[in-house]
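It would be a great kindness if you could assist me with a short task in structural biology. Thank you for your consideration; the sequence and its tokens are set out here.
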Amino acid sequence: MPMPLPTWNLTEQAERIVVGRVVRQWRVESTPWDGAPPSETENDRIIREALRELSSRERVDIEVLEVWKGAPAKTLTVIADPYWNLLGGALERYGKDHRLLLFLESSDEDWRTTGYLSDRRLEKTDVPAWRERVMSAVALQAFPPVNEAALVDWNALALLHPATRWDALDALYSSVLKGYRSDPRFRAPRPNPLSPVAQRRFAESFLADPGPPRSVSGMLLALDGYAHPEVDRVAARLIEEALRYEGEGKDAFYILWEAQDAMDLMVSRLGASGPGTERCVTGDKAREATPALTHCVHARWRQLRALLPKPSP
């Protein structure tokens, strides 16, 4: 299964980037792979038939609301491929009044989405933040090469909008958030790619709109090395909200895992050390939230919570 591409790469590769909505879904009767050309070899036949099996016959007509890259258009026909995008059934899932951000490239059969799961549903209120993120990337990419500092600045700006915040965190810290960890402890990269000024601006945005509990470890990654008692208190509240989740199986395990990621960063922020502050580990290969693991994580949090700065009177 391929991994979704970062927004920067999708923007660079796409011929067209539009915001639109699905107005019709339909099927084509034939594809270029249905008929055998003259003098087809056996190898060519095998390849053609494989492509025919993989080629989706589903199409959606997109009413274009905004164009952020490429030539203007009022409507576009896009391949709806259940293995590649979520365009099929969009009308049933989202209703008539929806907005999709689409990164598109031309093909022998109409348009297709540029990357795996690159079609994104946007809330109406999120469109301005995404417009700024994508169109600023288009502007930067018009004058290559783009240096690393400009990329960091581009992501730092997106951190200030809750709609694009996680996308920017994923770009800045992908090696930590997605990479293999031989050490279970969650560690921020040193030096932090964000400057103190960028961290201060992000801290203000985070305090104004902290986001959901499961995102707190990413927030603390961006703010690693930036001391701020109120950030610590808000992060603590999000960790406690996560730990109140009462679930079972792997989902509950990953809630505890993500809460521990945040605790690992809180250990550094609070200067904590000693028994009871270390990460709770498990040899459970099934990755279940066992009673012993749950008890250990909650006990660890009580130990760390006692070290939090007291609010000013």
Observations:
- The longest strand covers residues 16-27.
- The CA atoms of residues 188 and 221 lie 6 Å apart.
